[in-house]
Every structure is written in structure tokens, then in C-alpha cells.
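Q: what sequence does this backbone want?
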């Protein structure tokens, strides 16, 4: 009787007969046990911030949207009028004027602040003994409250005894009625915003400048690139992220301008310095619904700007 030789069973490479794949070590990976009440502790830790955000941001926003469809003067009963308030403000010449003034103010403020902040940042970025002095002096106006700055500049612009016209008179020229001239009032107020805020934005741009490697400038110098060529081809392109942040912050702050306008001119003379927020403030006592509708329009404008900026940022990153 012939006996057949038993062949060893074949197993998959790397496997075992019993394991069917991985070699069993007899050990099990311990699962992390969640501590009881861990989720509750997390919610409790963020609860104060949530209360502040919901109570001071979302709730007023929702209430403003609801009030924008009502007629109410803070005394009598609220009357639902639908979209009538939006029709009123979009057809009112004063609101369109406030939008135009806000846009002009924004253009002046962004251009003036960015140029002055960039020049200050480049001066502070140099390895000079005066660089620290420049950094300190340019930030000082930012710590002054805007109301105080507006009152000081209102005195400086005073036609008869103000410092600005006094200095102009030293050169034999006649001063101007800065805050009483329809053409000069808005740029005069914009100068206050530029003077007060350029130091903060200079620090942001200074951080961007310090992130540019020195080797790039050294290579450009070897290639005989002059200062203007280096500024145009190296500094500005590599400063784009910091510049974008500065532009976005300036845009939001300019559209929300109120303090210096109200302290210095109260929107005058006439409607020369009437901005959107000033329009909202002046209409609050007479018709809360119209003021709320104007605030909703301002919110939509800022939201559209934010979405466009996010779209452009995602496109640049891709």
C-alpha cells in the first residue's frame, strides 16, 4: 500500500495558518475611554464666548432684520410695512449721498493710509538707530481715542485760530474753512483717520517685510537691479499677503466710519460728510425701521466684499 506524502499547506505570503493574514500577538490595542462629562466640560468652557457672540452679534443682527420690515418710532406700536423701508432708503437722495460719501472716504483713506504705512514700514525695517524711534512714534496716535483725536483736529482745523491755518499763513497763503467747506470737509476728516491708524497698519506691513529673505535682495543687487526695480519686482509681490490684510481691514473700518465724522462735523456742512453709519444714527429716533433697513444694506455690502475677497484668496492659493 502506497502512502502519499503530505505536503505542507500553503499560506498567503506574510500570513499564518491560523491567522489568515497577520500574526496574532495575543495583545489588543486598548481603546481610549472618554471621561464621563468630557463633552459637557467642553461646552461649559466655550459657553461664555457663545453667550457673548449670540447676545451681542447674532441677536442684534436678527432683530435689525426684523425691524427693517416695520415702522416704529420707539414710542408707538410697531407696524409691519414689508419692503417699504428699503424702497424709502434706496429712493432717498440722502442715503445715496451717504453711500457716495462713504465710498469717497474709503478710497481716500485706503490710498493715504497704505502709502504712508508702507513708507513707515520700510523706514522702520532698516538697521538704523532711528528705526526704533520711528516704530514708537507711529504707533502713538493709535492709542488715542478717536473722539479725542476728532476734537483735537477740530481745533487744529479752526478757520481763525487753528494751527493748520496759522502754519499756512506763515508762507503768505490764506487758510481754508476746512470743516465748513463742502469740498474740503470730507478729505479733512479722512486725514484724521489716516493720521490715527497708519501706525497700526505699518506694523502689519513691517511684519511682512521682515519675512522676505535678504538673499533675494542680495541676488538682485548682484544682477544690478536698482532700488526701484527691487521694490517693484520683489517687495510688492512678496508683500501681497500683508497688503491684502491691510486693504481688507481698511475697507471694513472705512465703511463703518462714524466717531470722527460725528465729533467734527455731525455729517455737515449739509450732507458733505454724511456717511452710511451717520445716516443710520440720525434716523434712529425718527424711524427705527428705516435705520434698520440701512444697516441691513450696509451688512450686505460688507458681506459681498468679504465673499469676493475669499474667492480671490482661494483662487490665488490654487
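A:
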Amino acid at each position: 500500500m502506497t502512502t502519499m506524502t503530505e505536503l505542507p499547506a500553503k499560506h498567503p505570503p506574510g500570513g499564518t495558518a491560523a491567522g489568515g493574514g497577520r500574526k496574532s500577538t495575543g495583545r489588543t490595542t486598548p481603546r481610549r475611554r472618554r471621561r464621563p462629562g468630557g463633552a459637557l466640560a467642553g461646552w461649559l468652557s466655550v459657553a461664555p464666548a457663545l453667550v457673548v457672540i449670540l447676545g451681542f452679534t447674532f441677536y442684534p443682527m436678527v432683530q435689525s432684520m426684523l425691524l427693517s420690515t416695520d415702522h416704529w418710532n420707539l414710542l408707538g406700536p410697531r407696524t409691519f410695512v414689508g419692503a417699504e423701508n428699503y424702497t424709502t432708503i434706496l429712493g432717498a437722495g440722502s442715503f445715496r449721498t451717504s453711500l457716495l460719501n462713504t465710498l469717497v472716504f474709503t478710497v481716500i483713506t485706503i490710498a493715504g493710509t497704505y502709502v504712508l504705512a508702507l513708507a513707515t514700514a520700510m523706514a522702520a525695517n532698516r538697521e538704523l538707530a532711528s528705526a526704533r524711534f520711528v516704530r514708537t512714534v507711529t504707533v502713538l496716535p493709535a492709542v488715542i481715542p478717536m473722539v479725542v483725536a476728532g476734537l483735537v483736529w477740530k481745533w487744529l482745523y479752526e478757520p481763525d485760530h487753528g494751527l493748520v491755518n496759522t502754519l499756512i499763513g506763515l508762507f503768505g497763503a490764506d487758510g481754508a474753512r476746512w470743516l465748513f467747506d463742502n469740498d474740503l470737509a470730507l478729505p479733512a476728516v479722512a486725514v484724521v483717520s489716516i493720521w490715527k491708524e497708519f501706525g497700526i497698519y505699518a506694523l502689519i506691513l513691517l511684519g511682512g517685510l521682515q519675512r522676505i529673505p535678504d538673499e533675494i535682495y542680495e541676488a538682485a543687487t548682484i544682477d544690478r537691479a536698482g532700488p526701484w526695480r527691487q521694490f517693484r519686482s520683489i517687495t510688492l509681490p512678496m508683500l501681497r499677503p500683508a497688503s491684502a490684510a491691510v486693504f481688507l481691514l481698511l475697507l471694513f473700518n472705512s465703511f463703518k466710519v462714524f466717531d470722527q465724522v460725528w465729533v467734527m462735523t455731525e455729517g455737515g456742512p449739509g450732507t458733505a460728510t454724511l456717511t452710511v453709519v451717520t445716516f443710520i444714527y440720525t434716523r434712529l429716533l425718527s424711524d427705527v425701521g428705516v435705520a434698520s433697513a440701512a444697516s441691513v444694506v450696509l451688512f450686505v455690502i460688507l458681506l459681498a466684499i468679504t465673499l469676493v475677497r475669499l474667492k480671490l484668496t482661494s483662487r490665488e492659493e490654487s
